TrEMBL record:
Superkingdom of origin organism: Bacteria
Pfam families: DUF1223 (PF06764)
Name of the protein this chain belongs to: DUF1223 domain-containing protein
Signal peptide: 1-23
InterPro entries named in the record: DUF1223, Thioredoxin-like_sf
Keyword annotations from UniProtKB, A to Z: Signal
Amino acid sequence: MNKALWISAALLAAGVTVGTVHFNNASGADTATAEDKRMMTQQASGSDATHATQPVVVEFFTSQGCSSCPPADRLAGRLAEEPNLRVIERPVTYWDRLGWTDTLGKEANTTLQRAYARRTLGGRNGVYTPQAVVNGATGVVGSREADLRGLISQARFAELPQVETSDKPDGTTEVMITGAGADPANVQLVGLDRSETVRIGRGENGGRSVTYINVWKGERSLGTLAGDGASYMIAPRDRSIDGANAYAVIVREGEAGPILTGRILPAA
């Protein structure tokens, strides 16, 4: 039997609500109703199929100190295997106060999630775990697969820039972005850890081992995009973000605005 418990506290600096959403069941397994499965099938068919190649970026805000987060982390792993989905896990830090310091948590992830909430996302806004954010624009509880797939399907219909890559003999990668609008956007090189399994020592998930996919390690600016498009050269020395063994290019409006497009780069 599922029940939801919302635990919240005031974030004075951010002026928003922080919480965790709990979905408990006796088996600990992810559940989906027949209606959920029907919706998922419909969303993967019909007119949406013509937009299947449109890339969508999904960011997961989770924490090792959140007992509701492992199902969302498993969902992130499944989605990362699907074509044209760019999944990034962004572990947050605000649950560290409960007694277990998230070994992958970054304050930058907490800062971004709070900035999203201040900007007011579509869908379920706020600062909570687990949260999934689609293209930096719409939020949903990160373990609700049917709801998340619905947002992904909607996002595929947006007319957004396209990213192509070309590897050069010297190891440099050329990134070509086309179809950009007139408004400027930031082009970021994002460092990721492809996969890391952590055994959690204390807290709500104490004793569990959880695998995280495409974990955010850091990022650096490649430049500003405006007009029809641009190209950027990424040399091997640029792929030097600490702890990263994979890289993505993300095009975002402002510091915490909507994501226009993204691409996981081929391995160097």
